[in-house]
Amino acid sequence: MDKERSALLVVDVQSDFLPGGALPVGGGDEIVSPIADLMEAGLFELIVAAQDWHPPEHVSFASNHPGRKAFERIELYGHEQILWPDHCVQGTAGANLHPGIPWARAVAIIRKATNAAIDSYSALRNNWDPKGNRPPTGLAGYLKNRGAEQIFICGLARDFCVRWTAEDALQEGFRVNVIWDLCRSLEPKGDDLLRRELSANGVRIVTVQELRHRKGRTSP
């Protein structure tokens, strides 16, 4: 693997997405130790992370829409918006990154969904704003400035934040890999279709074992 040109991106491994959290992803706790091991393995010199960081009045929270319930869908700025339980609220324990992961290895941690009026699944771009734009988070520019050409993505949740991050990374011109076994989905029944769609769009699906086998070699 070309360590100089590849980056590992760890997405939203936070307390609220783990068992006992406000929006738990089934099996999310299973990926914590393997991600920690991967970060310590020396495969990547460039490691970055994303962290959901919602203000309490965030537009995606069902609690901020009187009469609405969590997981209902509404139209927001001309696009579908899922209403979520309050989660990863700024300054709360639920927003904390999991302490079992060596975050000191990350050279940058980008906080997303910080604008109360805009949701943000992707680590690279926010969802649509009232003008119909998807403002960048700044992470894509940071990665390019650091020389990254290829991104390996892991974290939570596979069918939302990981998926949107992967698709946006493709549009930004990166070669994109999703470390499939180091992700978990909110709706696992859709995993087979998700895998096919990502692959069809140009995302490479890999496993952590494959990465370890490539250690010391340049990725194709």
Structure description:
The protein is of the alpha/beta class and 220 residues long. It has helices spanning 32-40, 139-145, 158-171, 191-201, 208-213, and strands at residues 6-11, 46-52, 73-76, 79-82, 108-112, 150-156, 175-184, 204-206. The chain has a 6-stranded parallel β-sheet, sandwiched between helices. Helix 3 links the parallel strand 6 and strand 7. Helix 3 runs parallel beside helix 4. The longest helix has 14 residues, at 158-171.
Attribute tags:
single chain; six-stranded parallel beta sheet; two-stranded antiparallel sheet; 220 residues; 8 strands; 21% strand; alpha/beta
Give the topology, please.
Elements: E1 6-11, H1 32-40, E2 46-52, E3 73-76, E4 79-82, E5 108-112, H2 139-145, E6 150-156, H3 158-171, E7 175-184, H4 191-201, E8 204-206, H5 208-213
Parallel strand pairs: 1-2, 1-6, 2-5, 6-7, 7-8
Antiparallel strand pairs: 3-4
Helix pairs in contact: 3-4
Short description:
The chain has 220 residues and is an alpha/beta fold. The chain has helices spanning 32-40, 139-145, 158-171, 191-201, 208-213; strands spanning 6-11, 46-52, 73-76, 79-82, 108-112, 150-156, 175-184, 204-206.
